[in-house]
Amino acid sequence: MEERYNPQTVEERWQQQWAADKTFKVTEDPSKPKYYCLEMFPYPSGRIHMGHVRNYSIGDVVSRYKRMRGFNVLHPMGWDSFGLPAENAAIKHGTHPSKWTLENIDFMRDKQLKRMGLSYDWDREVATCLQEYYRWNQWLFLKMYEKGIAYKKRSYVNWCPSCSTVLANEQVNEGLCWRCSSVVTHRELEQWFFKITAYAQELLDHCDKLPGWPERVLTMQRNWLGRSTGVEVDFAVEGSGEKLTIFTTRPDTLYGVTFMSIAPEHPMVETLVKGKQQADAVRAFCQRVMREDKAERTDESREKEGIFTGTFAVNPLNNEKVPVWVGNFVLMDYGTGAIMSVPSHDQRDFEFAKKYGLPIRVVIQNADKDLDAATMKQAYVGEGAMISSGPFDGTPNAAGKDRVAEYAEQKGYGRRTVNWRLRDWGISRQRYWGTPIPIIYCEQCGTVPVPEKDLPVRLPVDVEFTGKGLSPLAESKAFRETTCPNCGGPARRESDTMDTFVDSSWYFLRYCSPKFDKAPFDKKAAAYWMNVDQYIGGIEHAVLHLLYARFFTKVIRDLGLFDGDEPFKNLLTQGMVIKDGAKMSKSKGNVVDPDFIISKYGADTARLFSLFAAPPERDLEWNDQGVDGAYRFLHRIWALVHKFHGRIESVKPAGREAAGDPLFRKTHLTIKKVTEDIERQFQFNTAIAAMMELVNEAYEYTAKDVRVEKLPVVRTTLDALVQLLAPFAPHIAEELWAGLGYEQPIANAAWPNHDPEAIVVTEVTLVVQVNGKVRSKLVVPAGLSDEETKSAALADPKIQELTAGKAPKKVIVVQGKLVNVVV
RNA sequence: GCGAGAGUGGCGGAACUGGCAGACGCGCCAGACUUAGGAUCUGGUGGGCAACCAUGGGGGUUCAAGUCCCCCCUCUCGCACCA
What we know:
Oligomer: single chain
Helix content: 25-40%
Structural class: alpha+beta
């Protein structure tokens, strides 16, 4: 054993050893409890960043800890390797996306992740851009197509002009592209969708069955799903046989309707304006609104505008004629794209009515009975009794909702419905570097799925990357032109690729049997390993990846491939790594390079600091001097072990006879504390602090020469310390373990248990308060009764002096801790 | 606006069912060893001379409040014309 800790040599040695021994290779073993620990796999951008270091350090502690506790731990890693940056690099530098991506993967695996000493089973590595993986995307797509879950439709979609592709709703934030923050526009296109809405109710219900998920993620998912119940009501359009159907959550206000509003995209616009004098003005209005980009369109502060179509519709409840308007705030893709407007009880309608001089009628009266349409300053949205509502007058509006709904259903012009904010997932991408959608268009046979035997539809390599015009696939004649699998006639391939979120929606299943070639995964292997016991990743995927993965799991279940409803039992969302109060970014110049830290201090220090500086869920403020502290701590442990190296290997650890020895006691307390901190929501920061305390105490204990009879205690302490350290700083732990004379790697050693007998106390320090203020402390034997404790406290001279002989009003005793004398 | 989370020394953060606020680390101060120290070790370190005062602010409950209750302020994140 070297005198001084040298992380570079130690780390290299053990990384090679683990690789040579295949220490972390696992197979299904029914005799052992399994544990599946997973960190979100990275996009191979070329370099890992501190967020990755933190993410994988957390996962590695969990995995190594569970291993030491006797679990058969599946801990895999792979690459989310389809995506735009590869294609952009191709356009800019002329490197093929495949070359760029595979080189990045090699670099990140061999030069970065492997240098971190992570306990992955590298034999299970997957890369989504390889046909061995993406063929199963295509296979799943075909199964979903058969079941009607994958379908094509023409609709208005989000278009990012910078990425030149369509985006799903989840991928637009405040009107901006999630990836490049460009302003998103609208386009009417024919696109492939996954019917995630068919699973909306189940996705919502199962939110209640995920107690291991952070509440805020579940809240975000519930909000995103956005279930609302209401009623659809048909209004007859005057002068035509057609009807206009609206959706409302407030059927209790149906008698207050004074006009209607429809979306500019509504298919009935043309019918409504036909032959009217304002027809051209309405068409122009619709055109203008539809040209607006998503950010403008959904800006809440935007002025509400509208235009009368010239046509009236009839409210079926009271047979009143109300004008039909087109409103710029009405959304085509929510509800029916048409709404009834009740200015008295809806703030938006109120403002709209005031602006255009439309009538206002109160139909819910408040408790003070002072609502008056003529004097109202804003809509009244509270509770009250229904008025001016025909047969429903006097009904409390809450009950009225149901009564009106029922009435409308009976009369045949209304029905109760559920509406979701969630839209179907648009998965077509007009880009090259993704999974080709396995569909062929035949002039004769129409849309024909690629037969399963013809999978995979491979991405052609010989395409051009110009960054202009259509995507490379659409421009490639060789790819596009094909024959119909049905009739053999000329046909054209679908040239869109799948959203890369498809890839990450089931990769956790692929890890269970990554080489399986008969199906996406081996059902038996998945039955053994699934679910993921602990999933760890960033909060930014709260409603993207995490929702899609839940959806896919249910679809895969319904395809009969897997028995389970949910993929991830427990979810840990780690905080960001920040520096100088801001997220690390090139533009701010506050990026800390993991390679630099690892080269300078070693991976163990990098891991230790990223776990020590904050609890995992919170943001972590990077501090270069804090890293020095972690480094110093490892040096201190090294020096401690080295001090006894050579004369302790043959010493047996202390047994119960050592009870009462302060270091022995502290050692067992530390085992208890570290174990509890890991079990209790992964409080790694306090677990490490506890180890530091033990080291400090061991330094004190061994400052002078240690007598021979105390060596067993020292042995116990050093053994435990190294075992506890092993999941956090595995390389140095291996080296020290060997230094203590062990021949088997600590990666396979057992986690220590604390001995309850060893932490029993014989004396306690009693805090004595007078009127709630600490006035004295005294050491008393443990296990005193309340009465004995009280006497001991009152006998204390300091307390006697303060109470001045007066009898206390009251004495509170907290056994073994505290006495409060109230005078 | 709605929802969630947070506010504790110079800094990152501890404090489990209410029971010694500030564990542990950084930084800082002093000392030791040193030609030297940005290495290492030892000690000290919330404020105040003190009584005392201190967990965003103000009330309250309690023998006792960072922790429980009420009101308010600030910050972060998510959602936000969803009818």
